[in-house]
Amino acid sequence: MNKVYDNKAWLLILPMLALVAFSAIIPLMTVVNYSVQDVFDANTRFFTGTEWFVQMLNDPALQSALLRQFAFSLTVLCIEVPLGIGIALLMPKKGWQASAVLILVTLPLLIPWNVVGSIWQIFTRGDIGLMGWGLRELGYEYNITRSAVDAWGTIIIMDVWHWTPLIALLCYSGLRSIPEAYYQAARIDRASRWAVFRFIQLPKLTNVLVIGVLLRFMHSFMIYAEPFVLTGGGPGSSTTFLSQSLTTMAIGQQDLGPSAAFSLIYFLIILLVSWVFYTAIMNMQKDKEGGA
Amino acid sequence: MAEITLRQLAHSYLPSPSGPEDYAIREMDHVWHQGGAYALLGPSGCGKSTLLNIISGLLEPSSGEVLFDGERVNSLPPEQRNIAQVFQFPVVYDTMTVFDNLAFPLRNTGMSETQIREKVLEVADVLELTPQLKRKAKNLTADEKQKVSMGRGLVREDVSAILFDEPLTVIDPQLKWKLRRKLKEIHRRFNITMVYVTHDQLEASTFADKIAVMYEGQVVQFGTPRELYERPAHTFVGYFIGSPGMNLLDVSVKDDQVRCGEVVVPVFPRVRDIIARSSSDNIRLGIRPDFVEVFETAQEDSLAVEVVNAQDLGTYSILTLALGDVTLKARIDEDQATPKGKAYIRFPQARLGVYIDEYRVETDHE
Q1: What ipTM, to 2 d.p.?
Q2: 0.80 surpassed by pTM
Q3: Chain B residues in contact with A285 (beta carbon < 8 A)
Q4: Which residues does chain B have within 8 Å of residue A289's beta carbon, measured at their own beta carbons?
Q5: Which helix (H) or strand (E) holds A48?
Q6: Is the domain A60-291 a CATH 3.90.330.10 member?
Q7: Could you give the angle at which helices A60-90 and A148-176 cross, rounded to 10 degrees?
Q8: pLDDT tens profile B311-327
Q9: Best of B108, B145, B160 to disrupt the A interface by mutation (most A CBs within 10 Å)?
Q10: Is the per-residue pLDDT at A80 higher than 90?
């Protein structure tokens, strides 16, 4: 067969290119544009090069926000992933119970971020909130506006409550897709319950867990509305996470240049962490080279 | 080592079965002897897999008993039955290497690593898996994976029977043949009872010494491939084994003669008597297409037929013939000329089977 070389086919990707340009490239380039200039008004601007980037990277407030952000993301991942897997394992697999439990587990996912913050704000109030009042009655001086520990703990519990269902749902679907023969073979091989989990269920969950962990990492790394409504970033700046610092800078102070530089750094960090994580997981599944 | 006995075994998936049609397995008695290579052959949905799962203990039968060497094992879970099962789709532990996969059942029993190593290497050698031992099971081809799942059954010294549930379904045709030979070899070497479930008659007859044909939840015949072919005990066996299946002619006795429609079929007198004595109106004569003799001119006892169609299959042809209103198939070798239009056929009387209510009636002339 003769292959006909006709590069006109490349034209067919133009619509896609236009779409991507509007959805990703143009907005991103706008940010890049701001990050290398100091804009005063429509006619006055100066090229600043890497100045904003250097300034942002050396800003102690942002550095501590970044550390807090990593601490927060790691903590919620470490709690939500095992907890989500556990819930998925316990969920019934058929009958009306399966549907009922599925709905109950999914509910927190359907609540908008702001509302979650408001719910917990009221929930933790010392006078009328069930949790705040209850803890006080039990003798614990619970106050999220005074104690950084209380504020942190509450935000983490709130995030776990809001997002563990996502991991649980993903794992549940992953578990459902394991053919019955695997469990039967394991019984015949006399595998223990732990071995079934370790060698059948967990490996089959790898793919959904990669998606789950990536989503939860990105989500939690960009968390904004919930802590903002609940604690406003306080007490002090103990719960001020990256996106809140960014908003304060960009909207509150109108520092467009620095915030643009900061946005790009923020974006690159998420990209880098996600890539490293994904590559590491994918490498685990390959055969080891050579070996005795 | 075990002899597996099924006594008055029946199983229904319904909680309170009423009629026989509610049963996946209808009451049956059966014995699988130690060291035999057996096939369980039947169409989809006839209860083969159900029966297999009952033997391995994955299912508990609704009634009757499963005996291993005379001991009742009905309520024993599979892990306590010394049985291995290979499933339709290969089951391997993805994240483990082939070595670890094979070692897994042994590790679960707490055997020492040196013994495990010895056993695994031996089995890997038999299955020709030695070069793959270090690889992750996830990255194997389908046939290698299936060998690994077989291997997990073979490493265990306590395994007395291996059950195969259509194990070659996902294997490429040329590898199927290789794996089947491997199975035979393993069977000879390890002296293990093997029960092989399949819906493929070729697979069954190349693997097994004896085949149990299942139909509607019952074993309708248990015999060697040759017996199944030459003397099917049930019309279903006649139809299911052989290609094309057995010819079945509805017959009755009128004026002291056996007739198919209006055509008189010559049979032995005692066959005629059996048919005449029966009160059933479901009486049929069965004959394999390759036992039907075809002539171009009339012979003694021959019947005139129309040749409807001739299908050339290389070394032989399949003729479709019309005998009155009845359609028959006959097989002739390539060296015999294919008759056109009219032809004459004769049924060797010793090859004619009598089926009353679907079951073969012994006529003592064989």
Answers
A1: 0.75
A2: no
A3: 95, 136, 138
A4: none
A5: none
A6: no
A7: 40
A8: 888 888 888 988 888 88
A9: B108
A10: yes
